[in-house]
Design brief:
Length: 263
C-alpha cells in the first residue's frame, strides 16, 4: 500500500509563544475529501497556514508528510511544487500581476525546463475552466483579486485549484460569502477535481456546502485538535444541534484555543 497523501501526526503549533494546535492528527488518502468543522477560534485556519509553511507559525513538535515525504523540511515554494495547495479564508490582492500571468507562472514553476505548458494549451485550459466556473473572461486580465468581490475571490481560488491540479488541496471557508448559485458552481469545480490522484481538506462552518461536495469523513475541531470524527451524518447533526452536545459528551468547557494561557 502506498503512503497516505497527507499524514499529520501529533502536530503542535505555536504563535508568538502561544500554543494553538495541540496534538493534531489526521490522515487523508488519495481520492478522499475530508471536512473539518468547528467553532470559531479553534485553530482551523492555523492548521492550514502551518501546513503551508507560514513563517509566523512555529511547529514545536509532530510531523506532516505527503506521500511519505517530510513537508516540514520543504521550503514554501517546494511545498507548492510537491502538490500542496491552499485556498485561504482571506485571499490577498496583488496589484500589477494579472490573474492569467499569475496562473501561468504558478503552473510553470512546478514544471521542469522544456516541459512548460505552451501559451496555446494554457489559454485553452484557462478558457475551459473559466467556462465551467461560469466566470467572465475579463477576470483573466484583471489584477489578481484586486477589486474582486468576496464571492469572485472564492471562485477565483477554485479557478487556481483547477488550473494547478494539486495533489492535495486545503480549502479554508471556500463557501463563505457565496450566494447559492456560486456555491453550486464552486462545488462543481471541486467535484470535477475528484479522483484517485487528488485529496482534499475542506474547512467549513456550514453543512450546506457538504450537500454539494460529499465528504468521505467529517472531523470536529476544538481546542486545537480533532475531538470527533464521523461521516457526513456528523455534519448534519452539527447543523441541527450545534456543538454543545459534543462539549458535554467530552467534558469540554471552552472549545477555543486561546484561553487560560499567558499571553
Ligand atoms: N497570527 C496570529 N497572531 C496571533 N494570534 C493568532 C494568529 N493566528 C491565529 N491566532 C489565534 O489562534 C486562535 C485560532 O485561530 P484560527 O484562525 O486558527 O481559528 P479558526 O478555527 O480558523 O476560526 P474561524 O472559524 O473563526 O475562522 C485564535 O484565538 C487566533 O486569535
Ligand atoms: Mg479560520
Amino acid at each position: 500500500m502506498s503512503a497516505p497523501f497527507l499524514k499529520i501526526e501529533n502536530l503542535h503549533v505555536s504563535i508568538e509563544g502561544k500554543e494553538i494546535l495541540k496534538d493534531f492528527s489526521i490522515e487523508i488518502n488519495g481520492g478522499e475529501i475530508h471536512a473539518i468543522m468547528g467553532p470559531n477560534g479553534t485553530g482551523k485556519s492555523t492548521l492550514a497556514s502551518a501546513i503551508m509553511g507560514h513563517p509566523k507559525y512555529e511547529i514545536t513538535s509532530g510531523s506532516v508528510t505527503m506521500n511519505g515525504e517530510d513537508v516540514l523540511e520543504m521550503e514554501v515554494d517546494e511545498r507548492a511544487q510537491a502538490g500542496l495547495f491552499l485556498a485561504m479564508q482571506y485571499p490577498s490582492e496583488i496589484s500589477g500581476i494579472t490573474n492569467a500571468d499569475f496562473l501561468r507562472s504558478a503552473i510553470n514553476a512546478g514544471r521542469e525546463e522544456g516541459e512548460e505548458l505552451s501559451l496555446m494549451k494554457f489559454i485553452r485550459k484557462l478558457d475551459e475552466k473559466m467556462d465551467l466556473l461560469e466566470m467572465d473572461q475579463q477576470f483573466a486580465q484583471r489584477y489578481l483579486n484586486e477589486g474582486f468581490s468576496g464571492g469572485e475571490k472564492k471562485r477565483n481560488e477554485i479557478l487556481q485549484l483547477m488550473m494547478l491540479e494539486p495533489k492535495l488541496a486545503i480549502l479554508d471557508e471556500i463557501d463563505s460569502g457565496l450566494d447559492i448559485d456560486a456555491l453550486k458552481v464552486v462545488s462543481k469545480g471541486v467535484n470535477a477535481m475528484r479522483g484517485s490522484e487528488f485529496g482534499c481538506l475542506i474547512i467549513t462552518h456550514y453543512q450546506r456546502l457538504l450537500d454539494y461536495i460529499k465528504p468521505d469523513k467529517v472531523h470536529v475541531m476544538m481546542q486545537g485538535r480533532i475531538v470527533k470524527s464521523g461521516g457526513s451524518e456528523l455534519a448534519q447533526r452539527l447543523e441541527a444541534e450545534g456543538y454543545d452536545w459534543i462539549k458535554e459528551e467530552l467534558g469540554i468547557e471552552d472549545e477555543r484555543v486561546n484561553v487560560n494561557q499567558e499571553a
